[in-house]
Amino acid sequence: MVVDREHLVRLERRTTRRLQRAKLKQPACVEDVNYRHPRGLDRKVFTELATCRWINAKRNVIITGATGLGKTWLACALANKACREGFTTLYARVPRLVDELSAARADGTYLKFLARLERIDMLLLDDWAITPLDRQAQQDLLEVIDDRAGQRSTLVTSQMPVSKWHDTLGDPTVADAILDRILGTATKIQLKTGPSMRGGQTLASEEQ
């Protein structure tokens, strides 16, 4: 019993460290997902993603839909589950990430930063394609995605439908390269328009 207790304590500590390093924006759990909200979330698809088999398979996930439908919450719930299953995760807003990559290039830590991102089992890229990116930002994003393609899993959330990503990413050649690496193995969740979930709601414990 003492040995089992020590083993459980160590597992809990490791999980806590993974969650702290993930820097998730919201304290979400897959157990609290609200399937009754009329946003079109497929229970079967999401519960399969919650098994984390897609991470073992080095596949990607894309969640799109209007603001207020819980995209970030759902993504953080999957990241939380990944941490509990022993995977490393990291939350990053794309606009801030490209700024961090630019700063890393300026201070000489660019390659080290890329290597760190490459090792993350599941990288959560939030607010994808909400603003146009300049040429250097496009190239930086391609470096991140290319390093991970087929090696690690990436989860992307965006207000923009996938059909509009190409134009937002800018340079057609870079856009083609980025989208080919993300979309090729992605499970897509397209949330429908519905009542905003921000500020709490009464159908379940999920909150924005």
> How many distinct helices?
9
What radius of gyration results from the CA coordinates? 18 Å
- Strand count, sense and closure of the main sheet? 5 strands, parallel
Euclidean distance between termini CA atoms:
40 Å
β content, as a range?
5-15%
What overall form do the CA principal axes indicate? globular
- Identify low-pLDDT runs: 200-204
Average pLDDT for all residues: 90
User: What proportion of the residues is helical, as a percent range?
Assistant: 40-55%
What's the total count of β strands? 5
The largest sheet has its strands arranged as 2-3-4-1-5
Structural class: alpha/beta
Give descriptors for this structure:
208 residues, alpha/beta, Rossmann fold, five-stranded parallel β-sheet, 9 helices, 49% helix, globular
Architecture overview:
The chain contains nine helices and five strands. By secondary structure, it is an alpha/beta fold. The protein has a single domain (2-190), classed as Rossmann fold, CATH 3.40.50.300. Helix 5 (94-107) crosses helix 7 (135-148). The longest helix is centred in the N-terminal third of the chain and has 21 residues, at 2-22. It starts with a helix and ends in an 18-residue tail after the last strand. The model is unreliable at 200-204 (pLDDT under 50).
